[in-house]
Amino acid sequence: MFSERCGQRKQDFCRYARKARPGSCILLKNTVYCLSDRDSVRRGSGRTADRLLKTGKAEVRAVKSDSAALAAGRGHHTDAGAAKWQRWRPLLHLLLPVLPFWLLDLTLRIATDSGAYYPLYAAAPNLFSLGFGALFTALALLPPRRWGRVLYGVIYVLWTVYAVVQYGVWRIFDRFLFLADFLFAGEGLDFVSYARQLIDWRFVLVVALLVLWGVLGVRSLPEKTARRRVCPALGLFFALAQLVAPRLYAPVPETLDWDAWESSGYEYERFSSSSYDLALTGPYQFVLRDAWLSVAPDADAAQAAAEIDAFFDERPAHQDNAMTGLLAGKNLILVQLESVDDFVLNEENTPTLARLQSEGIHFSEFYTPQYSNGYTFNTEFAAQTGIYPYANGNVAYSLSRSAFPDAMGSLFEAAGYTANSFHKSEAKFYNRGAMHQAFGYEQYYSALDFAESELQAGVDEFLVGCDELYERMINEQPFLSFLITYSGHLGYDEIDALTTYALEQHPEYLDDSRPYEINGLFAKARLTDDMFSALLERLEEDGLLGDTVICVYDDHYAYGLTDRAVLEEYSEAAGGRLLERTPCFIWYKGCTPMTVDKTLQTVDLLPTLANLFGLPAPRTMGQDAFDPAYEGYAIFPDGTWLNDQAYVQNGAVVWNDGMTDAAVAEMTAYARRFQEINDKILDTDYYSTLE
Question: Domains in the chain, ordered, with CATH?
């Protein structure tokens, strides 16, 4: 009877003592005393009994010094405080293995500054993490202790690996991975060499803490417990956490303005920004919610098509303007730059590009919102189709069989153009071989198929210098040639072979007064600039320069700089000027220089080029930059938006230069609808129904 009241730690002791002499076990001030003699205890269980006897004899002496207590106890004495402690002790034993999973979440959120997105002390993410910790602990308690420890360890190790990967990704991209991004494991290996730059005291500290929490969790797993009662209780707590936590995001009535609470609720329902969403929920719920949204049935296709049609019908129809058909019949070389940021493109670093920008049509407020990971291809997708990819995943594999009749290659091919694309990487990388065909290009050419080495293929000038590639660019006129540069790709340190080559070719960029990575970034951008010099020269020699338009835009800002403070310093991205503002311009021989300061975004590039070349206006999320009815804006995956008058981030007005509150609320609602319609186009393969 008494053994049920003593702690788990002393149960075996009591069991052996009771076998020797019933009633010989006493609890006094949280200490178990055995009053058995050697012979009776030895009958309990051999060697274990001997160990218990030694402890018991010492404790017997202690009991004998307090005869009054011994007499009062008569084998069943309990101290009131000790009894209370014993009632709470099993709960503590169950809580200890739950806490490491919560500590893992907290460590990840602290290390990634997630408190800047959503408070670390907020109830919802912490409740979610404790709930999942309870679930994992319950699973580990089902088998015997030894196997339970193994199962607990396996579960924790898997989440530790996930947390470390997410921490590394955050250090590089300033965001996290969705499940769909893990489809690009092969592409991700391209960044493994870059990971060495992440190994510093912060990285080591995070890993050490995660390991420590796991060790504590495994060691604290109770040796024995009432599984039939405990495991259902832990499961019930998990279920309650799933039920209660989402309600803590406080859905806001439609009549209220967009604010932080509504933003939180909307983000939870949509999962559009991995940085914000992981902070919103913690990693476990983030993965579960992401998985659910990945397999959740799409909305009714007919209903979705009706909503899409209504969206396009409500928008003013495209108006012809002074720029309509200006470049009709000319060849087009469309170039997507790799990491040539605003602050990188200048007369010192990229003299040829700077000249073309100043002599051409310069879109000075052009933004490349970064939808999910796979930044290069996602920008590529947006520019080619006029549709943004999903905010919570890449589209390079999932949409390769979708119809894009209004994509760049398709539009120009329908007008009689020969359309081909060129890049360093293999056709399977980001599934470009299939995706570019979906965009309407006849063939995708990889420089690796023509170069003698990977280093040679990575130098952008090779795309133009290789006769076999160049001939395919200009072979049949009129032509559309889509070039994706590579030389500016990260990393920028001493270990990167392409960086070393760039600085050998352009030693003038070695400047000890600034970070080495800045030197590497500038030198690699110069390699890209060298390609443009060679391109202009060859076009001039072949008599094609006068009939060829060059359009240039950037894939993303230079996120590859390890130190974000350096990036922000050099880019001067402060006070509401977003990092995502990147170069975009159009040049042709005889062009009258023009600066367009309207706020534009990646999806606007396709309809703008279609207008300039006199092609039918595509039915896309983007709009023609020269359309007088289009006021211009940029919409980001977390619902943030920017126009010429205001910048609203996560529901908070960062700056406002004349918009009324009603106008801000209207634009905010439009940004939400913009993203919903965009995703429905992808979900339903909308364009296939129009063919």
Answer: 2-78 (no CATH), 92-295 (no CATH), 301-689 (3.40.720.10)
